[in-house]
Amino acid sequence: MSNILIQLLVIGLVAGVAGGMFGIGGGAIMVPAMVLLMSMDQKFATGTSIAAQILPIGILAAIVYYRNGNLNIKYAVIIAVGLIVGNLFGALFANQSFVSSELMKKLYGIFLLVIGLRYLLFR
Length: 123
Hints:
Structural class: mainly alpha
Largest sheet: none
Shape: globular
């Protein structure tokens, strides 16, 4: 197998495990891994991450959570509607000519920092 194929498979595996454990993967795992480990452009990595998530990647994990009483389907559908609309607006913004990959990296770093501090410092 080629080195790129192996890297992509490992990124997908790690993101899948994180998705199953924490409900994260795309933005928190796949995008930074593609940018930092594979030297992909921020926008290219974001687009690739979104495309990888189009398929029903979480269906098996969702079944496990549902069977254990840890999933509210109504809430998930409402969130999915927000995701559809939010992804559209996020993609439209990110692909404006005035939004550089450097700006995207900085915005993403601020986002992760705020989330990390919230988890570390508050209940």
